[in-house]
Amino acid sequence: MIRHAIRLAATCSIVALAQMPVAAFAADAAAAPDAAAETGEGAPIIVTATKRETDLQKTPIAIAVVSSADIEKQHVQSLIDLASGTVPSLRVATFEARQSALTVGIRGIVPFDANQTARDQGVGVYLDGVYLGRQQGLNAALFDVQRIEVLRGPQGTLFGRNTEGGALSIVTKAPTGEFGGRVEAGIGNYGQRTGEAHIDFPEFNNISIKVDGVYQHQDATVKNPLDSEKGWNYYDRVGGRIQAQWKPVDGFTANISFDKSRDDNTPMYSQLINYNPNNLPVATLAQIAANGGKLPSGTIAPLSPLVDVTGDKRVKTADVGVPQQVSTDRTQGIMGNLSYELNSALTLRSITAWRQVDTDQYDNSGGPARTVFLPNTKFSRYSLSFLDQHQFSQELQLVGSLPQVDFVAGAYYYNEHANENAATPSSNQWNADGTGYTVLSPIVSGPITSNNQGWDDTSLFLQRDSHAKAQSIAAFAQATYTPAGLDQLHLTAGGRYTHDKRDGTLDMVNGAVVDFGFHYRKDRFDPMVTVAFDATQDINLYAKYSTGYRAGGANDRSQTFDAFGPETVNSYEVGAKMMFLDRKVRLNLAGYIMDRDGTQVDFDNVNTDPSSPYFNLHTQETLNAPGTTKIRGVEAELNVNPIDHLSLGLSYAYTYTKVPQTLNPFLSTAAKPVYQNVFIVYTPKNAASGFIDYSIPVGAGDESVQFHLDAAYADAQYSFEDESTKTQSSFIVNGRIALADIPMSDNGTRLTVSVWSRNLLNETHIYRMSNANANTLGAYGNFNPPRTFGVEGTVHF
After folding, report:
1. How far is CA 135 from CA 151, 462, 520, in A?
2. What string of DSSP letters covers 104-143?
3. Which regions of the chain are under pLDDT 50?
4. What is the spatial distance between Cα 176 and Cα 255, in angstroms, rounded to a whole number?
């Protein structure tokens, strides 16, 4: 186990290296086993979490691996499909109801709203070692993925800032230099159709090229009664990538890649779960008219007869038709990785990357479920946001070995620019008694005001317009020492120094030109110490101390671009990685204590009263919670291969969180501050997953019939930091049956045909829920997707 910790240190060193696009690592690893999956019972799972290729079982860090085989069996097409809970400690959810931005969390480090220009997530997401700076664009179609590594716990030493909860590292397949690849196509319910092509070309003049293309489509799962408008939970994704690997001389490898993707999508639908939960007197239309069109004090607005109170039932068709354009995420990037072996024990690497995200957001998911009904008033808040972000990063790494010492050292530079503007027009208007409505025009005449605005570019009343730039410079080093004569013991120490600065300007608030700026500067040192011990060849123990932090910033939803400070975490972890019964049983255990200071807490205030001059305006303030947030957890992973062709797995995560009471800026006054309970979102106390894989060989070759079943459970959880309302527990089952590796020719061409289903049992649960409108309307919620299924064919050549 100690050896495992030592390996973890080495692994962490590799993690620093892993920040370079993984394609470079994959290139160096071309001859190694598939890094994402076992090649047979008891075979090692290779990871690059420490910037080196290491055996998962001997790497002293809590790592979960989603292999390429797992991705295929579970029909994972983008990161949102991991929301079902394959890795219990990893939480993925939509931001608000939007597929155009994802919230990613690990071990209770989950941001509520990082969907802004001057804020960061607490879990770093990496594509081939390159940090992705924004939530927008994270749900693009996955390319030819070799594995997804989930590095749990702070990764501040090798990965840097904004990895206080861990890192999600997506590793794609590099060129092989040999002709081959695969082509696949499929169809399914809800109009699903998919197509992929991944082709390796033969090496020519020491250059190997690989081309990837992906297309994914699904019609809406909730229909829109308004003709010609999209429904909800729709997507249409397309992307391509080309990679070139050049090896002009022994020891030198250059990997260059370019990718570009487009994701058209619509949000999840918001339903009215209940009406008047506090049993307030219902105002009559006469009372509202007598009160000047406003609700009398102490009453609740009547409910339009057109609006359904759905309770726990997921609807198939919305009760009111509203305009719903697709949101569009455009992502692209150029990555270059140079690796030169100075000698057999020393390698120099350079990782250069430029990436861009461009998002046009159109979110009309609320309809009448989030707006109070009043006669002849507007409703259905159409949330528009237009964001552009581009980033540049450069990393240098020196990886080497000395007698008894493995080390990594490097330097890192990151520069980002982001700007966003947003508007929130209403798209519909009630008649006098709520028995009908009209759809407003996207173009308005006359002066554009908060009550006279549309969603055409010429009619936007900007709620906010902000610009921010960030720069981060870091130096890091880590070394693992194995004493001579005591090969079972491994001692790792490392540290990272970071200088961060961020500047931003909020130049428009609610249609008024303003000039609110902020300036953030921070120097930070993050250490890591690991002791690992190999109790036996198959039992590795480790203990680890590490720190991490999420950078400070400013909230562009506030009225004055209010700044907030960083949050920091100290983590203490122990773990055991064990193999038993001739390596047919693998059991990994981890327990941790994390203390977080300066927790960034969001307080929301969305005005849903059409009679208010501030109707539809969204104000949010972020404060650093006082004291220490406590996060405690236990994780277990069990994999068993009891007989040939049968694999079983179970994973479990227990997470306890407690945030100190925090000042609510909207309820407090100078004379009477109000402190309230706040919560960490999308973090169930108990979460578990399991799978069964069984294959039956048929024929004389490698063909087989394969059966796969996986399931995931999660407790109810919070979805708003300032609300005590919980969602519903979930239990999702996915399945697949395939006739695999059918020979099609003598040259090795093989065909696999499969039928698959996600949410096989059509389970229904609310994954996001708010009761903020309890005294004006009722709770609203968003439901998980319904059952989907399809058939797919894949040709390997």
Report:
1. 18, 22, 21
2. EEETTB--S---STT---SEEEEETTEE---SBTTTSPP-
3. 1-40
4. 12
* Rounded Cα–Cα distance for residues 131 and 16 (Å): 12
Q: Please state the pTM of the whole predicted model.
A: 0.90
Q: In the chain, what is the greatest distance between 2 CA atoms, to the nearest angstrom? A: 90
**Which of 148, 138, 151 lies closest to 107, judged by CA?**
151
CA distances from 544 to 77, 341, 493, 652 (A): 34, 31, 10, 21
- The helix (H) or strand (E) run that includes residue 783 is strand 780-783
Determine the pLDDT at residue 35: 37
Please tell me the distance from the alpha carbon of residue 12 to that of residue 62, in angstroms, as a whole number: 11
Q: In the numeric block, which tokens belong to residue 340?
A: 């030169």
Q: Alpha-carbon distance 637 to 203, whole Å?
A: 40
Q: What is the pLDDT of residue 222?
A: 98
Specify the DSSP class assigned to residue 48: -
Residue 785: DSSP 8-state? P
Residues 274, 279, 284, 285, Cα dihedral to 10° = -30
b/e per residue, 107-131, with b = 16+ CB within 10 A?
A: bbbbbbbbbbbbbbbbbbbbbbbbb
Residue type, 373: F
- What's the CA gap between 674 and 662, in Å, rounded? 8
Task: Give the integer Cα–Cα distance in Å for 133 and 117.
Answer: 10
Neighbour order of strands in the sheet with 780-783: 270-272, 780-783, 766-770
In this predicted structure, what is the pLDDT of residue 41?
A: 54
Q: Are 59 and 49 in contact (CB under 8 A)?
A: yes
- Beta-carbon count within 10 A of 490 CB: 30
Exposure string of 548-574, with b = 16+ CB inside 10 Å and e = fewer, is bbbbbbbbbbbbebbbbbbbbbbbebb
**Cα distances (angstroms) measured from residue 390 to each of 143, 231, 240, 416, 469:** 21, 31, 19, 6, 10
Residue type, 658: K
Name the token pair of 52: 């080196």
> Residue 367 — φ and ψ, nearest 5°?
50, -135
Sign of the Cα pseudo-torsion (497, 338, 50, 134, in order): positive
- Tokens representing 364 are 């009309």
* Residues facing residue 545 across a β-bridge: 529, 572
Q: What is the pLDDT of residue 609?
A: 75
Contact 715, 684 (CB under 8 A): yes
d(CA 690, CA 710): 6
Report the pLDDT value the prediction gives residue 52, as an integer from 0 to 100.
75
**Residue 38: its pLDDT value, please?**
40
Structure tokens at 268: 């999840």
List, in order, residues 6 or more apart from 777 with CB less than 8 Å away.
272, 275, 276, 300, 301, 303, 369, 370, 371, 372, 373, 608
Distance between CA 63 and CA 55 in Å, rounded?
11
Contacts of 360 (CB under 8 A, 6+ apart): 327, 328, 385, 386
What's the residue count for the chain?
Answer: 797
Give me the numbers of helices (H) and strands (E) for the chain, helices first please: 4, 43
pLDDT in the model for residue 27: 35
**Rounded to whole angstroms, how far apart are CA atoms 62 and 129?**
18
CB 312 within 8 A of CB 766: yes
